[in-house]
Amino acid sequence: MRRYETIYILRPTMSEEEVNAVIENTNAILTTDGGQVISLDKWGLRTLAYLIKKESQGYYVFCDYATAPANVSEMERKFRIDEAVMKYMTIKLADSITDEGIDAARGEYEAAIAAAAEAEEDAEKQEEEKTDSTKKVTEEKTEKAAEATKATAATEETKATE
Question: Which domain holds residue 127?
Fold first, then answer.
C-alpha cells in the first residue's frame, strides 16, 4: 500500500446527504483490498479563487489514506465521470506504508486536532481576559471622571456660597 492525500471540490448546490453519499462512495473505493482512511476532513463551503465549471464556491473535502494504486485510479475515474465533483488533486505521500505507520499517522492527526482545540481555548481565554481588563479600565476611568465631576461641583458650590 501507498500513502496518498486527496482534496476534492464538490458542487455548492449539493445537499448534505448528497455530499455524504459522494464521500461514502469514495471511501468505499479506497478501503477495498485492505485500504484504510487515515483522516477525513470536511472543510465545508469556501469561495474559489477562480470560477470552476461556472461556480464561484465549492465544498472542500480533504482525505488522507493508504491504499493500492489501482484504487486511486478507480477513484479518479469516478471523479471524472461524476458531475458533482468539480475538481480534485491527489498527491502520493509515501511509496509504502505499514499498519504501524498508519496507526502513527492517525495518532499524529489526533494529536494535531487536540493541539488545535487547546490553542483555540487559550485564544478564547486571552480574549476574555482582554475584555475583562478593558472593562476594568473603563470602570476606573468612569469612577475618576465621576470623582472629578464631584470635586468640580463642590468647588463651584464653595465659590457660589462665598
Answer: 99-150
